[in-house]
Amino acid sequence: MIGKLTGRMDYRAADHVLIDVRGVGYIVYCSDRTLAALPGAGQMVSLYTDLVVREDLMQLFGFTSLVEKEWHRLLMSVQGVGAKVSLAILGALGPDGVSRAIALGDWAAVKAAKGVGPKTAQRIVLDLKDKAPSVMAMGGTVADAMDGPSGQVIEEPEPPVPAAATPPPAAPRASAQADALSALGNLGYGPSEAAAAVAEAAGENPEAETSDLIRAALKKLAPKG
């Protein structure tokens, strides 16, 4: 499985790029939004990738962030959604827009993508709504994962957990609020406005899980009128 490519951009086409990795050229299909964010020919580029293998075809799809890659994988798991439709949705909304639309159940926003009908948009929201919070909390771009020109991915070791540590009863709710804050931060909301929305949502529903807090906070942050 090819999970990430780092190499020199050879050329850019309407729906794909050719990346030269030590003399081997990889054709990588990307959304319009991702294509627009990539550097010009001759420059170094790094993309997370997903390899799709069929009986008569092998295709690589490229993404600038793990969130975009995960949404592509999830979108393609929905009946009737192929790679072309998935990239159209990601190109129209971006990964953050997809996260927001699905978390809020806004199938009309999903339908705005080229080639997506109302039934498909509703099916996408229905099938993936419960998965939105975990994807929103992922964050991270290829640049975040790189350490200098070598392109080495840095894996932080997990801190040791004390054997006798027992969280207090309120910890799960505090954790849910922290996860909701992290997800809203990944969507571009400022710390103060995100904290206020999450606090208000938690005050209205103290037992709310992370997904419920995110949905409630997004509704409070949505433009009025």
From TrEMBL:
UniProt keyword Nucleotide-binding, yes or no: yes
GO biological process: DNA recombination; DNA repair
Region called Domain I, residue ranges: 1-64
Name the record gives this protein: Holliday junction branch migration complex subunit RuvA
Domain Helix-hairpin-helix DNA-binding motif class: 73-92, 108-127
Subunit structure: Homotetramer. Forms an RuvA(8)-RuvB(12)-Holliday junction (HJ) complex. HJ DNA is sandwiched between 2 RuvA tetramers; dsDNA enters through RuvA and exits via RuvB. An RuvB hexamer assembles on each DNA strand where it exits the tetramer. Each RuvB hexamer is contacted by two RuvA subunits (via domain III) on 2 adjacent RuvB subunits; this complex drives branch migration. In the full resolvosome a probable DNA-RuvA(4)-RuvB(12)-RuvC(2) complex forms which resolves the HJ.
Taxonomic path: Bacteria, Pseudomonadati, Pseudomonadota, Alphaproteobacteria, Rhodobacterales
Protein's job: The RuvA-RuvB-RuvC complex processes Holliday junction (HJ) DNA during genetic recombination and DNA repair, while the RuvA-RuvB complex plays an important role in the rescue of blocked DNA replication forks via replication fork reversal (RFR). RuvA specifically binds to HJ cruciform DNA, conferring on it an open structure. The RuvB hexamer acts as an ATP-dependent pump, pulling dsDNA into and through the RuvAB complex. HJ branch migration allows RuvC to scan DNA until it finds its consensus sequence, where it cleaves and resolves the cruciform DNA.
Domain of life of the source: Bacteria
GO function terms (MF aspect): ATP binding; four-way junction DNA binding; four-way junction helicase activity
